[in-house]
Amino acid sequence: MDEQEQQKLKNYVLWLLGRQEYSKKMLIQKLKAKGADETFIEKLLAWCESLGYIDENRYCESFLRAQINKGLGLKRVLSDAGNKGVDRARLIQLVETQEIDWFELAQQAYLRKYATTPEKLDYKEKAKRIRYMMYRGFSYEEIDFAMQAATMGE
């Protein structure tokens, strides 16, 4: 790689980081897709870290905030973390330090999708709603709480 290509890749990484937070894993994937070699990637990312452009803790926090704002449950957050290069142990530790009411989140997600809920749901409709909420990453207890709260009209 010549100096011009290296400068282009450096500018590319700075442009990416200027738009949003990225994990090291995601940046490595993007740089490899651009044809960067391993040693240059390591050197570039170490430089970015030394200047504070890459911070895994900061990325983990922004990832968790974004997932919660989407109305996703803990199971889905942990599942998506692997795809985005978030350290699972760091994420679990962060979740434990935050005061997140997963039951409240489940209720909000349920009401957003199912604003009107009849008193009695038939089996098929109830199963459909439970599947939807499980896909969103909520536990059965959280789903049950959300469904009961919706039928009570809270």
Chart the SSEs and their pairings:
Elements: H1 3-19, H2 24-33, H3 38-50, H4 56-69, H5 74-84, H6 88-97, H7 102-113, H8 123-135, H9 140-152
Which characteristics define this entry?
single chain; 154 residues; Arc Repressor Mutant, subunit A; 9 helices; mainly alpha; 3 domains
Describe the overall structure.
The structure is a single chain. The longest helix has 17 residues, at 3-19. 20% of the residues are buried. The protein has helices spanning 3-19, 24-33, 38-50, 56-69, 74-84, 88-97, 102-113, 123-135, 140-152. By secondary structure, it is mainly alpha-helical. Helix 4 (56-69) crosses helix 6 and helix 7 (102-113) packs across helix 9 (140-152). Keywords: Cytoplasm. Residues 99-147 form the RecX third three-helical domain. Modulates RecA activity. InterPro entries: RecX_HTH_1st, RecX_HTH_3rd, Regulatory_RecX, WH-like_DNA-bd_sf.
What percent of the residues sit in helical stretches (DSSP H or I)?
A: over 70%
Mean of residue pLDDT values: 91
CATH architecture of the largest domain: Orthogonal Bundle
Task: Specify Rg, calculated over alpha carbons.
Answer: 21 Å
> pLDDT under 50 segments (min length 5)?
none
Number of helices: 9
CATH class of the largest domain: Mainly Alpha
Report the CATH topology name of the largest domain.
Arc Repressor Mutant, subunit A
Query: How many strands, what sense, and barrel or not for the largest sheet?
Result: none
Q: Note the beta-strand portion.
A: under 5%
Integer tally of domains: 3
CATH homolog superfamily of the largest domain = Winged helix-like DNA-binding domain superfamily/Winged helix DNA-binding domain
Number of strands: 0
Structural class: mainly alpha
Shape: elongated
Return the string of H and E elements: HHHHHHHHH
What is the CA-CA span between the terminal residues?
62 Å
